[in-house]
Amino acid sequence: MLNKLFKYEIKATARIFIPLYITLIIFSIINKIFNTFPLESGINIKGLFGIIRLFIYFGLVIGIQVITLVVQIQRFYKSLLGDEGYLMFTLPVKPWQHILSKLFTSMIWITLSGLSTVLSILIIMPNDAFIDLTKAIPQGMSEVSHLFGSGTFLIIIEAIIFSILCMATGTLMIYAAIALGHLVKKHKILASFGMYLGLNTGAQSIMIIFMIVIGSLYLKNFSNLSIHIQIQTFLLSSLAYFSIIIAGLFILTKYILDNKLNLE
Amino acid sequence: MPWDLKSDRPIYPQLIEAIELKICSGVYPLGSKLKSVRDLAQEAAVNPNTMQRALAKLEEDGLIYTHRTSGRFVTEDANMVKQLRNKIAKQEINQLFQKMKILGFEKKEILDLISIMLEESDNK
Amino acid sequence: MTSLLTCRNLTKSFGAKKALDNISLDIGRGKIVGLLGPNGSGKTTFIKLCNNLLTPTRGELLIGGYRPGVETKKIVSYLPERTYLNDWMKVSQIIDFFKDFYEDFNAEKAYDMLKRFNIDPKDKLKTMSKGTKEKVQLILVMSREAELYMLDEPIGGVDPAARDFILETIISNYNENATIIISTHLISDIEKVLDEVVFIKDGQIVLTKTVDEIRDESGKSVDALFREVFKC
Q1: In this structure, are B55 and B100 located in the same domain?
Q2: Are the beta carbons of B41 and C221 separated by less than 8 Å?
Q3: Would you state the pLDDT for residue C38?
Q4: Out of A209, A232, A249, B14, which could bridge A172 as a Cys pair, Cβ 3.0 to 4.6 Å?
Q5: How many helices (H) and strands (E) does chain C have?
Q6: In this structure, which CATH number among 3.30.565.10, 3.50.50.60, 3.40.50.300, 3.40.50.410 belongs to the domain C5-229?
Q7: Residue C175 — φ and ψ, nearest 5°?
Q8: Size of interface B-C (CB pairs under 8 A)
Q9: Which residue from B8, B12, B49 is facing C221, i.e. has the nearest CB?
Q10: Is A261 close to C84, i.e. CB distance below 8 A?
């Protein structure tokens, strides 16, 4: 069932994102062909076109980020707790499966939105900057592996998991806020915003508690430790922190959908 | 022949009457096969359970019989149908008599009126 | 055979208000039942409870022996009063969707009914009128070979010709193992099709009788009796 929901979710959202990504990439390629953004002085036609192209480019990049956020919200607020909810919640499917399928889909689009933006930047950047980059990357990587030695692979894995959990936390916080807002009779949207701020504050408070606890374990010697161990500590405690927040948000959202659903 | 069902009388007896009428009038000829319960119910726009009960009663009365696998059929007993026809006619006539009695008609008046009307309908 | 739907002392409160007050009901298989009552009487609350769209405050509700949940959703086919279809799909895609999620969905039947209603499966839901979308919803719901159908105002916003066709569809879908519960105001159109009626008022069951019992005992149609019972 989870697979089917996931498939449906991707289908419903791909029709928005794929054209956007394609447009961005094509626009980047076109710009590269017309020699990127000439910021020539003087109000001539070429310069004017250049500025317009710049605006469009930024518009696309920012637009993709905004739409990624809006779609996340829409897929939960409208498709699950709006009229379409009558269809969704009568499927022989448990509510937590709805949450997960939407969560995974959101995370995929967040990742792809980021990657397509990076790709467009790589396409657009001036050739010499690109060459500098291709030199800088292997250099940076070798510095990193010197720093961490045999622990490099582990650190990289932890960093990847860190990004994934970070994404998941952001999305789940939106879902939990919408679910909490659903409990209120009037002004649900306003309530959801408020809940989001509240949850965010709560999560940050927990983070501070975490830092105090971790800090006190090391007593005063933290800065004396090697960079490797400092970063390792940071990553591991972050993973623990995110896991706790994610679990909490998930359980909260699941509880509301299981027991407090009230579609109108 | 449309199913003319009144809304203030129970449906079940109305279905029985309607089917009896269709049999007597030849709409459902002797020995003919009846449509399925579901089709009849759809035609009459009634609940299939109610139609089923009506058919069951008619079967009990012998007007309809079920032939194991082939379905339901109208009886081939022409005599039975003739008697039913008479019975229905008598019921209608009794109703007529009651009404005319209320209106204050005498027996001879009733007969005369009926004769005149029969003649008129012949001439149409 | 035990009844398909049983509820005992079922109560649903929203804050201080009791939408359903201690109702108990038994509905068997192979029946077409009318759930009749004015707005706010608790009909929709009851139907939502049956579909696990609300959770009971107190009491018990069993469908096919299960509490409303994944198992009951497999055997219950629900037509809500509102349009619940998304707008980006074509009709053929929503049929595939139903086929995917519901084992008892009969796609052939759906395509057949679409044809009779003159609806093109390649049409997008977005381009359809409200009335056509409602027909599509009805077709989707009736194409499932479910054990319990719950139809909330199925003939509400539809023209009289379509209304007749919908009633025909309901009758033709009848089978002895399945039960259809219809919640509606439009009683006179539908009462000949009903086995039993349940009158509900202020969250309580006021009457449970067969249509013929009502007509026999009161000498009135169910519609007429309803107007009497629920006179403002």
Answers
A1: no
A2: no
A3: 87
A4: A249
A5: 9, 9
A6: 3.40.50.300
A7: -145, 160
A8: 58
A9: B8
A10: no
CA-based nearest residue in chain C for residue A82:
C84
Helix axes A152-182, A95-124, angle to 10 degrees: 120
Do B56 and B100 sit in the same domain of this protein? Answer: no
DSSP state of C83: -
Domain extent listing, chain A: 1-125, 136-264
Contact C30 B49 (CB under 8 A): yes
B5 within some domain? no
Contact C44, C81 (CB under 8 A): yes
Shared domain check, B88 and B68: no
Give the structural domain span for B57.
Answer: 11-76
- Do B26 and B57 belong to one domain? yes
Q: What is the pLDDT of residue C39?
A: 84
Note whether C99 contacts A: Cβ–Cβ < 8 A.
Answer: no
More confident: A264 or B99: B99
In chain C, pLDDT over 70 holds for what percent of residues?
99
Neighbours of chain A (3+ CB pairs under 8 A): C
Q: How far is A113 from chain C (nearest CA, A)?
A: 22
Q: Find out whether C121 and A24 touch, Cβ atoms under 8 Å.
A: no
Entry pTM? 0.88
Looking at the fold, whether B91 and B51 belong to one and the same domain comes out as no
Per residue in A145-203, pLDDT (tens digit) is 887 777 788 888 999 999 999 999 999 999 999 999 999 988 888 999 999 999 999 99
* A186 interaction partners in chain C (CB closer than 8 Å): none
Q: Report the mean per-residue pLDDT for chain C.
A: 91
Residues of B at the C interface, defined by Cβ within 8 angstroms:
5, 7-12, 38, 41-42, 44-50
Which of C212, C217, C218 is most worth mutating to test chain B (most B CB atoms within 10 A of its CB)?
Answer: C212
Going by C-alpha positions, the residue among C199, C146, C197, C138 that lies closest to residue C170 is C138
Is A235's Cβ below 8 Å from some Cβ in C?
no
Span A218-231, average pLDDT: 72
Number of domains present in the structure of chain B: 2
Considering only CB atoms, C219 lies closest to which of B8, B11, B45, namely B8
Edge-to-edge order in the sheet of strand C204-210? C76-79, C148-152, C179-184, C32-36, C196-201, C204-210
Asked if B25 and B72 sit in the same domain, the reply is: yes
Span B23-43, average pLDDT: 92
Name C143's Cβ contacts closer than 8 Å, sequence gap at least 6: C98, C105, C106, C107, C109, C110, C113
Query: For the segment A57-105, what is each residue's pLDDT rounded down to a tens digit?
Result: 899 999 999 999 999 999 999 999 999 999 999 999 999 999 999 999 9
Residues B48 and B61 in one domain: yes
Are the beta carbons of B45 and C164 separated by less than 8 Å? yes
Mean pLDDT across chain A: 88
